[in-house]
Amino acid sequence: MGSVKQVQITFDCAEPERVARFWCDVLGYVVPPPPKGFADWGEFDRSLPADRQGAAFACQDPTGAGPRLFFQRVPEGKVVKNRVHLDVRVGTGLVGEERLAALQAECDRLVALGATRQRVLLADEYNESCIVMQDVEGNEFCLD
Q1: Phi/psi of residue 25, each to 5°?
Q2: For residue 29, what are the CA distances in angstroms to 61, 70, 87, 98?
Q3: Residue 69 shares a structural domain with residue 97
Q4: Domain boundary residue among 49, 73, 97?
Q5: pLDDT tier, 84 (very low <50, low <70, confident <90, very high otherwise)
Q6: Contact present, 52 and 72 (Cβ < 8 Å)
Q7: Same domain, 13 and 69
Q8: Residue 142 CA to chain centroid, in angstroms?
Q9: Is residue 81 part of a domain?
Q10: What does the alpha-carbon distance between residue 139 and residue 115 come to, in Å, rounded to a whole number?
Q11: What range does the domain containing 31 cover?
Q12: Buried b vs exposed e over 54-84: b needs ≥16 C-beta within 10 Å?
């Protein structure tokens, strides 16, 4: 049995490019080059059948270390809490007020990009503080 070499995280959404570009800004990711033979993604998208135009978009870690993120259009809207979510690790190694300040600074930056702050979970005997947020389409993620 072989080992997994790469992981891609897929998001169901209404507006794939909008959500992908939000996550590019959050994570410092980039949009990959368009397929060979196309000057840009817009040209590629226009080559697709009308019902497939705007149906998918992706972004990737420019260093290649992080997973590729893929965004696909689905007809139904989000109705329940995510079963899987991303933790954006901005407070690693920090504790107490220093951690909360780092989390809040990143929260403020992401709210300006269109995210929504849901709630702060304060440290307890098992976990450090984190901030629960939602992306531009309501998908939950945490600042950790």
Answers
A1: -65, -40
A2: 5, 12, 15, 26
A3: no
A4: 73
A5: confident
A6: no
A7: yes
A8: 11
A9: no
A10: 9
A11: 8-73
A12: eebbbbbeeeeeeebbbbebeeeebeeeeee
Give the pLDDT confidence of 35-59 residue by residue, as tens digits. 999 999 999 999 999 999 999 999 9
Residue 2 lies in a domain: no
Residues 25 and 68 in one domain: yes
Show Cβ contacts of residue 144 under 8 Å, excluding neighbours closer than 6 positions. Answer: 87, 88, 89, 90, 91, 92, 103, 128, 130
Residue 78 C-alpha from the chain's centroid = 15
Q: Give yes or no: residues 65 and 90 share one domain.
A: no
Is the residue at 78 inside a domain?
Answer: no
pLDDT in tens, 112-127: 999 999 999 999 988 8
Q: How far, in Å, CA of 70 to CA of 67, rounded? A: 10
Are 15 and 61 part of one and the same domain?
yes
Take residue 117 and report the two structure tokens written for it: 């702050």
